[in-house]
């Protein structure tokens, strides 16, 4: 005897969120049944394996049928096919778009194309996330990217409006879109120690302060690209290293402020010019797309690694960067205060996020 | 009540008089048959028991298949037979009547069943609805918590006591309608345990819902008898004959199973009995579903006594005593589970201090079987008190097996196939209507009857288990109106479809309600309100405007003014007998309906103010839908669906008409759509969605009395094809929440009307 057909349809669609998670995880029905059994599902309602299999199959089928609606979450609320309570709709959407940061870290900055999709089996092997799950997450990235890529207005809000995601999740997606758009280099070995959250934070900073939308919220322009004009103006900061007097002055001010406050004072004093040059050169190069992409690797190689070599603490870096930034204001001949603050604000918080002691 | 005693003595002649009255009213009708299952209190005077008939016909013998004559004649025959069965039970009417067919190739089984009953002549006679009575009936709509509820329990019951029939309302219907000295079948009669004046049978089977006035001890439960019988493949007459020969045995076995399971649960009455026999090419399926209850007015059921024919072998004896013990344990457990603790009854013959099972000296036979073999057995066995099962019989072994293999219902669940579970009143608004379909393929063609039975039983049991598991988040809850449909779509395929509603209830208040005397809830009146309101609208159209909710926009008004015509039709379909009657009473009803409509208006105000169920005009809902950025869930009206006639915790303010739709879906890409399950799953989901959309389009927010009348599924996996036909129907309604007092069970509020009213105002 075999079950030929087995369906259960409720007027209100019944969805077991635990089973939903298993489905999202890309498990097969039999694996999901095993997991549920291990979790003690059989103890409920005098269920047996058959009941559990039937329930799991049914739930998986329901999710599969709802999946196409989840691709455009706004439709989930207005569709008539499945009567799903608003609360459950929110959970369905949120969970569907949630992703593993390990996975996101792997594809961060990569082009969201077919080519990358082909590499998903490698990522699946590496991260231990099922291929099916990887595909879903990748497709989600791509879908969100495609929708908001050409949209005007703030990125996070666009994502929230079109995908009805929570604020945190929308911010993460904004980071992914931002990285995919600017194709920042994140795959280098030296960057491996950085987590998705580190990058997401940096992306947030860049979006908030370096894009066009950041400065002028009235501007109906994209949030995805860095402001060209600003990047161009960064060239003016070169004066800080090119002008010998100004550089010495800057060093004196910073040293005066930090004397006795940090343990690495001596090393700082020695290295000041190198560090300053690194940061300023970085700024002046950002007009080239290639260099924008290398922003993070440059930060690590030119600034973070030397500091780490000298065993700076986070507190020390904080102090240094704060005074380094502020001291420039006291330089009488330095006229690019606004650009300087905009640049250093982001660089400082990025460095602090990326600096793992 | 003082006059009750004398009336009791005169019960005989009074009964005759009553019968004459009612008969005259009913005799004018060719078929005094009602398909309704719920009646106003006092309508049913006595209930005789289930009457049923089956007929096997050959469809290819119809000379003129396009014309209905032959079929009409068949049904006419069947109805005549039903009528005569009812007569034999001393009844003049049949209630809870239903007809069904099962067709396989050219063979067709026509089945009809109902409950023989004596009806109150008051409802039958012309001009009988006096003003007082109808006023009462209008005001008897359950409206707990409504300020201005003008009814009192005492008032109502006195009205019903005022009828010619002297039987107290809570037990009258179980009193036998037939002559006790000239019984149509052997049955053990006792004096009614409630009034102690008239005779009642030991067991009562009916197809109707539990009358609201019935007194029930404990809770009820779904009882199913399942049976599968193989038959040889044959053609034409030979086939029809072999089916005809099998039918009586199947009926008998189903009946025995029902009886055994009833006893095992220590109950004494079945309601909503529905026996379905489906014919396939090489087998017959029988499925009987009913809700078992313990009627306080009937005697306590005896236990089940296992008897071996040859009690010589020691190990055999041991085997029997083990089974006996298991059965006794199960009975004890069930009593606990269903909370059946009947008050110590005062026996006319002083009882001996032995357990329940042995004390009750009731008969052990069901009402409609011949009892030859078992009475012999009784003599040999000596324990005349229990229902005896003879174990030597292979069938009996099977019976006992099936008795004991029925899995107990998981804690927190109740189930019934009637409208509501007796003993549960405090429903919350948690509601989940569902349909589940399963098709099993019997892989082994050479199955024995026992093997098939086992498979079929497991199938049903597993389906129930799956339902419980699926709905576990609703605990404590009751599956109501569990409606099983079996079919044999193809050789070696068994299809089972279930539609039911899971309703959760409040455990805390339930306990309080349990302590209170259990009386019927308000669903009866609810149905009554339906008819009254409609009748009022159809007779006086100038009443319409008052019923309009002033807050609802213009286009919604168009709907509501169109509605009565729809209503009228659907209502006429459902109960033309009543309509006819009630229309004659137009004058009376007009007075009542003014009252109703005033209330409707009042309630409709709250409809428009509550966001939940605003009957959006079409134009606006479209504009809502186009605004994409709205938060999810907002643009779509939530439409509730239920197979019951009411929604707990709500009041239906308007009936918008019947919805009856046929859908046919075909696919030629079965695999791509997720196989048969995927195909049917999405089809049923779409059917639900279309029904909901229709309800919403009429401005409604719920569909009541939903039923899936047809679900025919055919597949051809080799061709990657499948077809399905579904027929669903129900009544579109507008309901409103019973404000914030929703949680208060109707029972409690109706009992303490004044108290609740005060609470509401403070």
Automatic annotation (TrEMBL), chain A:
Molecular function as annotated in GO: fibroblast growth factor binding
One GO cellular component term: nucleus
Biological process, per Gene Ontology: platelet aggregation
InterPro entries: FIBP (IPR008614)
Signal peptide stretch: none
Top-level lineage group: Eukaryota
Protein name per UniProt: Acidic fibroblast growth factor intracellular-binding protein B-like
Biological classification of the source: Eukaryota, Metazoa, Chordata, Craniata, Vertebrata
Automatic annotation (TrEMBL), chain B:
Pfam family, one: YbjQ_2
GO molecular-function term, one example from the UniProt record: calcium-dependent phospholipid binding
PANTHER family: C2 DOMAIN-CONTAINING PROTEIN 5
Residues that span the membrane, as ranges: none
CC per GO annotation: plasma membrane
Protein name, entry field: C2 domain-containing protein 5-like isoform X6
Location of the region described as Disordered in the Swiss-Prot/TrEMBL record: 600-628
Taxonomic path: Eukaryota, Metazoa, Chordata, Craniata, Vertebrata
GO terms (BP aspect): intracellular protein transmembrane transport; positive regulation of D-glucose transmembrane transport; positive regulation of protein targeting to membrane; positive regulation of vesicle fusion; protein localization to plasma membrane
Ranges for domain C2CD5 C-terminal: 641-733
SUPFAM superfamilies the UniProt entry points to: YbjQ-like
